[in-house]
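[Backbone geometry]
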Amino acid sequence: MLPVERRRWRQPAPEAVKLHRRLLRNPPVREAVAAILTGYVRLVYRTTRWTRQGDDSLDLLVAEGVPIILCYWHGRLLMLAPGWRYPDRTHLLVSSHADGDLIASVVGRLGFGTVRGSSRRGGASAFRQMLRLLATGAMIGITPDGPRGPRMRAGSGAVMLARAAGAALVPVAYATAARHVASSWDRFVVPRPFSRGAYLIGAPLRIARDADADEVEAMRRQLEGSLTSLTAEADRLCGQRPMVPAAEIPTSGERAAAARAAE
């Protein structure tokens, strides 16, 4: 029998969201919240009985000196950091808005570097910075469905970065048996302490530096499918129902084809 999941949090009212963002723009408040969140993340990780899979394949890539881009869904961000074995070599892509400031502070306390930007803001500069970091042997962490979704639908940014850098895409997922699930766009998962969990690292994906647009799209879909399958497996190992991705947004080519078919 699957465990009963705690009731999802309700989406906050717009006024509450505005207040939340104003508070996070206050550095002392933001740092205090970051300290509390960091402490909670460490508590959950240390009191959870983890099942780990895939570390050997990751260690092999590291030994071979292959540039690595770890990929994880936005809703599973919270426990990815403490479970990653190479924090001092890893920089996570974090958006430039107020929530991103909080995330950057938390992951910084956990030993990670950050790159600030997203597809909507500072994307080109962040892309160049990540290329430079990968060239020095650093690792990059990206949420392919971030920062605003749709949930569990991969954009092409991680694949484009992997192509340019000759890097391997490494899917990562976690789940826990006891958790809260927010009603946010990403169905953000907040694990509870003193539970059991699964931390899974999937098979690396490689794309050629000279891959064309069709190959990039095929790899994007492969990354999306791999991440979704890995996350579902982590959920199953913890007795949870797999999370359902949001409806897929058609590509521009698919929209054009649909329009031609309707003529």
Summary: The chain has one domain: 23-243. Residues 23-243 form a domain with the Glycerol-3-phosphate (1)-acyltransferase fold (CATH 3.40.1130). Residues 77 and 249 are 23 Å apart (CA to CA). The radius of gyration is 18 Å.
